[in-house]
Design a protein that fits this description.
Layout (H helix, E strand, L loop, with lengths): L2 H12 L12 E6 L4 E5 L12 H11 L6 E7 L10 H14 L4 E5 L4 E5 H4 L11
Parallel strand pairs: 3-4
Antiparallel strand pairs: 1-2, 1-3, 4-5
Helix pairs in contact: 2-3
Bound molecules: tetrahydrodeoxyuridine.
Pfam family, one: dCMP_cyt_deam_1
Catalytic activity: cytidine + H2O + H(+) = uridine + NH4(+); 2'-deoxycytidine + H2O + H(+) = 2'-deoxyuridine + NH4(+)
Family: Belongs to the cytidine and deoxycytidylate deaminase family.
Length: about 130
């Protein structure tokens, strides 16, 4: 599973976006150390503030299946004209899973012309995570 494959998986996931209120379809794909991939897309709600982001949905799917680490890379796709970066809440949600496995995943922020590659620790420096509660 190359980075391009991961981006393709995120784009595919966005096909299932339920975003009738924003019309902003986001896709995400998580790649794990064992080669497995878990995808997510944003799920909105008539009560607008209850929207679930694509990255949060993907992390929730993985953790609900028992995954607790090994997060190596995350691709995020959106319809905008610039690379899409995870929102603040999603950065925190991604950090929980990453810290559990002691990884600092590469975040592929996909845009129409370029993909921005950043580490999660760059997007969320000095993160509060599981170890902070020790
Ligand atoms: N959204 C995501 O899915 N991920 C992000 O990181 C940013 C925003 C979604 C939430 C909402 O459904 C739509 O994009 C517009 O904000």
């Amino acid at each position: 599973m190359t980075d391009e494959d991961l981006i393709a998986a995120a784009r595919q996931a966005a096909e299932n976006s339920y975003s009738p209120y924003s019309n902003f379809a986001v896709g995400s794909a998580l790649r794990f150390a064992d080669g497995s991939v878990v995808t997510g897309t944003n799920i909105e709600n008539a009560s607008y503030g209850l929207a679930l982001c694509a990255e949060t949905v993907a992390v929730s799917k993985a953790m609900a299946d028992g995954v607790r680490g090994g997060l190596e890379a995350v691709a995020v796709t959106g319809p905008g004209d610039a690379p899409i970066t995870p929102c603040g809440r999603c950065r925190q949600v991604l950090n929980e899973l990453a810290q559990l496995g002691g990884t600092d995943p590469l975040i592929l922020c996909v845009g129409p012309d370029e993909t921005r590659r950043v580490k999660l620790s760059e997007l969320l420096p000095d993160a509060f995570g599981p170890a902070s509660l020790d």
